[in-house]
Amino acid sequence: MLFRCTNCFGNVVYSPETGKMFCPYCSGTDTQETLAVPNTVNCVNCSGEIQVNDFTSATKCAYCGSYMIFDERVNGTFTPHLIMPFKLGKERVKEIMRKEFGKKLFAPDDFLSEVKLSTMEGMYVPFWMYDFDTHYNFQGRGTKVRSWRRGNTQYTETTYYNVLRDMDASFEKIPVDASYAMEDSTMDLLEPYNYTALEQFQEKYMSGFFSERYNYTAEQLEPRASAKAQNDTEALMQKTLGGYATMVPVSKNMNVTRKATQYALLPVWTYIYKYNNQLYPFQINGQTGKVVGNVPISKKKAVAYTATTAVVWLAIGLLIKGILGGF
Amino acid sequence: MRNYWKHFRIPFIIMIVLALVFGGITIFKGSKEVKRTNDEPGEQRVFDYADVLSDSEEKKLEKLIAKKQKQLGGDIVLMTIEQRLQDESDDYEYPEYYYSEANLDLAEDIYDALSFGYDVPGGNGFIYLDNYYEQEDSYQYSSIFASGECYHEFTDSEMDDVIADTNDDVEDDPYDAYCDMINQSVREMSKGGIDIPVLPIIVIVAIITIVFYARHGSKAKAKKTTAANTYIANNAPRMNQVQDIAYDKKVVTRRIESSSGGRSGGGSRSGGGSRGGRSGRR
User: B216, B223, B253, B254: which to substitute to probe chain A, counting the most A Cβ within 10 Å?
Assistant: First the structure.
């Protein structure tokens, strides 16, 4: 599907700032009509060849810059249940990057340059969202220690407890990214998303962005989601066991039951910076603006700044010593 | 590097201002000469009775002393002798200090006898008396006797440092050792103000530098911002059972030894009227 402006035939895209469809060519709002994209070989606008992989569901034509959504990859079994539209536009994300890393003095000079930041692209990443019920029964033996002194005698009292806990936890929409290209740990760090902004899937939100269909099925990724639920359940249980000096588990039984699964597209901005033949990818949560990525370090700048800091402050210290000491 | 000047602007300004203040004070102090008012002791300040200096070295030392005296506002006297100190240690209150005290007394006697003092006889100044004679205890003794304002400016620990440093070098090169002694003594007495040790400055600068590097060179990807209850319905699990049943209790007692009365002892010694550092060398 391609969204075309009825006024100027330009490519209409979704504007995160206004929440509306916007034509960047004639500045029209909600002026779109749709064109079917029958295949993933040629651009429907300029017939240029399109470079896509097996999972690409939305891309940009390298020749005319039109954003296309491949109908066959967002329909049928690939139809997302939910989509979280981009809330942050590119300009806002540039500001966030500058605010986040502007004070990193060792970063290369062009790391936050307008030219480089403009290469940033928005992408809807496929996620599976799992609902789980967990039941956890815990039995353990704990001790509490109390100590006091009377006269010349120190008393230490140890009380032994049988500790019983039974807990039910209901997890909703634990997200697990279904993209091979996206690093799992990075996607985990981008969480959380505010789910109140989730909407029923509509193709229009994808215009102006890249996207993938899921690379893995819900069944394939369930172990990862289940592990998240189990870890969280364990952490919640541990919170109820505070106040003990020691705790020895006697029995631990946890059951995890999958209730439901939903396929969703979540917004992520990606900025890839190349420095010294190495790629430094940055991912930014398209809703909250949380940034995940390692800042490259220019050795030349690191040495210059650090050495100057040491020399300047040493000089200041010695001058103060000289002035106060009367030399 | 466009942020370089911007980032270091304030430290550079502070450094320049301090350098100007430092330079100004240095020039002011350098130009300040104290006028002499006691002409009794004559011109000679170097008395090399132990004959460890050449004539030319003595002249150079005289020249250096003449310059430093004006800066200090005190007489500077260097005397080398090779004199046995009469052993009267048995009658002395602290026999182990006898020779150093005797050498110091000798220094004081010489200073007073020759009427040294920049302002008045017995006034501002100091004498460095280096006795090359190996005393009964196999040591040679050096002493500094300071008088007038110099007595207040030259602390015992500073004198001890000067004597120790001089003794380290005097056998290899007496001239250099005495030059250093004069310069160091004048520097110590001209100080005033607060003496800040260098080590804490270096430690603070090292900490600032490490914090600076850590702040700007950290490569942390991001912090985890989800909690265990982030995806829990209503943010909390449902607790079906929470029981903590005490089934046993043990009490251990321990007798605490009361501390017995300690002994405080040792004596402190204060000597009246003794002014000056002293040290012996083999």
Answer: B216
